[in-house]
Amino acid sequence: MKAESNGRDAFDAIYEENAEIVYQTAKRYVGNHHAAEEIMQETFLKLFQVMENTNIRAAKPWLILTAKYAAMNYKRDGSREYPVAEFTEEEEERLSRFFEDPQECFAGKQMEKEYIELADEIFAAIYKKNKRWYDALTITYVLEKPQKQVAEQMGMDLESFHSMLYRARKWVRDHYEYRLDRIREF
Predict the structure, then answer these.
(1) Residue 89 and residue 92: Cα distance in Å, rounded?
(2) CA–CA distance, 15 with 67 (Å, rounded to integer)
(3) What is the pLDDT of residues 72-124, one digit of tens each?
(4) Taking the CB of residue 106, how many other CB atoms lie within 10 A of it?
(5) 31's torsion region: left (phi>0), alpha (psi -120 to 50) or beta?
(6) CA distances (Å), 154 to each of 137, 143, 150, in order?
(7) DSSP letters of 111-152?
(8) What are the two backbone dihedrals, phi and then psi, of residue 2, each rounded to the nearest 5 degrees?
(9) Do residues 176 and 137 make contact, with C-beta atoms less than 8 angstroms apart?
(10) What are the tens digits of pLDDT across the range 129-141?
């Protein structure tokens, strides 16, 4: 072997002398050009990592055995994989609807955050304005209780309760609709 000393020059010399045989060994076991190249790279990377503690004269058999076992492992592990059928354009389009563009995702999260902040502000303002409105809106729309049940809990007939909900919603629209529209435009 040309390389008698350790170091970068020795590694380069070993690589030049053995790259083809390592590649051929890997390809013999995996039968795939790309996989064989990958195994060859991994094999030489392992050699480079342990080169200080390796007998340079024994590098060739070490490389061949390492490539062989890496290829056998690759083949074994690959047998557990299942091929995936190609998707048609329609299937790809349907699947792509489930995955959001990162910018759209960020914009959606930002809009959601603004809605939550505005909702908190609206409920705080309603609570200050009229505690019965707050109770009616919270129980009816947040807790999703039937209006008839909420009216009974609040000691009101259903018609009066509807009227109170209408006034509360109108107040919210009058005071916050412009902010809701601004968030929707975002």
Answers:
(1) 5
(2) 13
(3) 888 888 755 555 566 677 776 766 665 656 677 677 788 888 888 988 899 99
(4) 11
(5) left
(6) 12, 15, 6
(7) HHHHHHHHHHHHHHHHHHH-HHHHHHHIIIIIS---HHHHHH
(8) -70, -35
(9) no
(10) 999 999 999 899 8
